[in-house]
Amino acid sequence: MREKRVFVVGSLNADHRVRVRDIPKPGETVLGSNVVVAAGGKGANQAVAAARAGARAVLIGATGADRDGELVRRTVAEEDVDARHVRIVLDTPTGRALITVDREGENTIVVSPGANSELVVDDIDAGLQGAEEGDLLLLQLETPQPLVRHAARAAADAACTVIMNAAPVPPSVNDLFNDVDVLVVNEHELAMLADLLRRNSNDRDRDADMGLLAAESGATVVCTAGDAGAFVTHDGAVKHIAAHRVDAVDATAAGDTFIGYFAAALTTTANDTIMAIQTAVAASALAVTRPGAIDSIPYRHEAATTPPPTRRADHENRAG
After folding, report:
1. Active-site residue among 235, 256, 295, 314?
2. What is the pTM of this model?
3. 195 annotated active-site
4. CA pseudo-torsion sign 108, 110, 115, 117
5. Would you say 253 and 45 are in contact if contact means Cβ atoms under 8 Å apart?
6. Do the bridges between strand 182-186 and strand 220-224 make them parallel or antiparallel, or are there none, so unpaired?
7. In whole angstroms, what is the distance from residue 24 CA to residue 303 CA?
8. What is the 3-state secondary structure (H, E, C) of the chain?
9. pLDDT, tens digit, for every residue of 305-320?
10. Confidence category of residue 34, pLDDT binned at 50, 70, 90
11. What is each CA distance from 14 to 8, 75, 101, 223, 304, in whole angstroms?
12. CA distance linking residue 13 with residue 20, whole number of Å
């Protein structure tokens, strides 16, 4: 049987990370640690996570010809990721993420897209050439939205499963979710997308928001919720997958770890979304115990030893 692949169209950034006691408030200046520079970007992170989870990962993206780009390309090359479709763009800097992490492991991130904005349709088509039924495509929104839409359409035409991490949240949805099979968001992104769809209502109910997003997109909706685990629309209900007991240090790549592991699990258990989410929750729980982005992503044998889920009542509510 042919081994399924996880294609990733997404960003490659150099992460510039500083640790602080508390994330500064507007107008406030705080002292932080020395800046640590490492490879990152949602595309690179998710491709590495899928590869470390045991999947065949193919990365499609762009970097600059600068020192940051060299760092990111070298880091990805050291992983079992097919990066032949990462293009070097001259006269444009590599994307950069400015990350602040507080003492509780929470973070704020500002992304300067750089070369990620230079990705073109030809890059997508060349990278997805040969994609076929059973393969998966991971998308995020740190690359231009028209290209994301094009990639989703191309993958759907090839009968691939399309997973979109709707981050950062776009200013409008339009037809962005067409051809998407699974939407993955965190709680903040879920609320923002629901506001776009309901025209800025002040209602705040996670299950209702997930039902709304599922109905509008036609996709399965997965919401990651930190130490509360994850939630998924499943058989007309919202199902809860419990979190794991860990001491969080840095949540920077937790979501990307979740998505990469989720996609990798679906290559072997295509019809068992719940099991795939359970695997992803275990991996992301381990990732938050380590600093950094790619450095924090566990390998498959490590994720298998993650502590058991936190004991809390599971629940299902009707969605929509």
Report:
1. 256
2. 0.89
3. no
4. positive
5. yes
6. parallel
7. 33
8. CCCCEEEEECCCEEEEEEEECCCCCCCCCCCECCCEEEEECHHHHHHHHHHHCCCEEEEEEEEECCHHHHHHHHHHHCCCEEEEEEEEECCCCCEEEEEEECCCCCEEEEEECHHHHHCCHHHHHHHHCCCCCCCEEEECCCCCHHHHHHHHHHHHHCCCEEEEECCCCCCCCCCCCCCCCEEEEEHHHHHHHHHHHHCCCCCCCHHHHHHHHHHHHCCEEEEECHHHCEEEEECCEEEEECCECCCCCCCCCHHHHHHHHHHHHHCCCCCCHHHHHHHHHHHHHHHCCCCCCHHHCCCHHHHCCCCCECCCCCCEEECC
9. 655 565 443 444 444 3
10. very high
11. 18, 11, 16, 27, 29
12. 21
pLDDT digits (tens, 9 = 90+) for 82-138: 999 999 999 999 999 999 989 888 889 898 999 999 999 999 999 999 999 999 999
Hey, what amino acid is at 295?
A: D
Higher pLDDT, 235 or 193: 193
Strands 95-101 and 107-112: antiparallel
**What is the rounded CA–CA span in Å between residue 269 and residue 187?**
26
Residue 94 backbone dihedrals phi, psi, to 5 degrees: -65, 145
